[in-house]
Write a structure and sequence with these properties.
By secondary structure, the chain is α/β, with parallel strands linked by helices. 39% of the residues lie in helices and 19% in strands. The strands form four sheets. It has a five-stranded mixed β-sheet with strand order 4-3-5-12-6. Strands 10-7-11 form a three-stranded antiparallel β-sheet. A two-stranded antiparallel sheet has the order 1-2. Strand 3, helix 5 and strand 4 form a beta-alpha-beta unit. Helix 2 packs across helix 3. The longest helix is centred in the last third of the chain and has 23 residues. It starts with 10 loop residues before the first helix and ends with a helix. The relative contact order is 0.13.
């Protein structure tokens, strides 16, 4: 079977052929295309030469298609419709009337963040739905495929192709405990290593900078409990001798509600890079862009508030240095 050199094939020839097949007349096809009759006839002649078939022949007052032309148009029309969809500008997005469902994959690090996102979305778009997913091993693939509108992926691990990234303010760290915790009396590395720590599993494989910071400095923290949700951190710290080291945004409003205090960790802990990610395919989608903006702005604003509200207290040995 011979092949046509696509580099020599003008897409306009196929568009003209489609209109000719619909109209069955050069004059009407020219009027519909806004071209001269001679230009339409010339396009048909060029396409005939390319495919090696007469395509359309005069029969009375109409142009009748050949069997090859009938088969060709059945294959061409879906292709032309697909091209139109691909190159068409994005449809406008109206939050006030939309009933679209948006999906995001982030750990619920703060109920205030969760509430603020839902409140703002439904204030601007009462008909919109939100599906909030916990991050998992399948999250990155779903982001690349466009099934998730936005995700937050911490750390600096390599990301797959097809992902757009926007950096946020890195997460810093504070160690939280109840205000009358024995560790507050002589806070330092020994207290850090003596008392059990509470850890939240956030559903990704990113290594915690908290563990990395203690490497080579001693035993490090001893994890006494792993829990799935940040919502349980406050009650547990208030009723036990657990310590917990988190970004302040995770503890916004919780510290005051449960009578907790925040201390600087005894080791310098590297800030955790914050990365918002989404599929390259959704970059210019108006609806997805609107939703991403709300998520990013809400998290960034709450993070600034949380960082500004922390009263830092350094470990005892660090304060005693001259």
């Amino acid at each position: 079977m011979s092949e046509i050199n696509l580099g020599h094939l003008d897409l306009n020839l196929l568009v003209t052929f489609d209109v000719l097949m619909r109209e069955g007349n050069v004059t009407r096809a020219a009027a519909r295309l806004g071209r001269t009759q001679s230009a339409v006839s010339h396009s048909l002649a060029r396409l005939r030469e390319q495919v090696g078939d007469p395509l359309m022949v005069k029969a009375g007052g109409r142009m009748s298609p050949t069997p090859f032309a009938q088969k060709l148009i059945e294959d061409i029309r879906p292709i032309l419709r697909s091209i139109q969809r691909v190159v068409a500008p994005p449809e406008p997005f109206d939050p006030a009337t939309s009933t679209r469902i948006f999906r995001l994959a982030l750990p619920v690090i703060s109920h205030k963040f969760l509430n603020n996102v839902f409140a703002r979305v439904h204030n601007e778009a009462p008909g919109v739905g939100i599906e909030w997913l916990a991050p998992s091993t399948e999250t990155l693939a779903a982001v690349v495929g466009g099934q998730i509108d936005i995700s937050e992926w911490p750390g600096s691990t390599a990301l797959p192709d097809g992902v757009e990234v926007q950096l946020g303010q890195p997460f810093t760290w504070m160690t939280y405990m109840r205000k009358d915790h024995p560790a507050t009396r002589n806070w330092g590395i020994k207290a850090w290593e003596t008392w059990p720590h509470l850890k939240v599993n956030v559903g990704n494989d990113v290594r915690s900078p908290v563990d990395a910071a203690a490497r080579g400095k001693g035993p490090g923290r001893r994890v006494g409990a792993w829990i799935p949700h940040f919502a349980d951190v406050g009650p547990l710290l208030a009723r036990t001798n657990f310590l917990a080291t988190f970004p302040p945004i995770a503890m916004v409003d919780i510290s005051e509600e449960y009578g907790l205090c925040a201390l600087d960790p005894p080791y310098p802990i590297a800030p955790l890079p914050l990365r918002f990610i989404w599929s390259f395919r959704l970059t210019n989608d108006p609806g997805s862009r609107w939703f991403r903006t709300i998520v990013i702005e809400t998290l960034s604003e709450l993070q600034r508030t949380a960082e500004a509200g922390v009263t830092r207290r350094a470990p005892a040995r660090a304060r005693s240095k001259k």
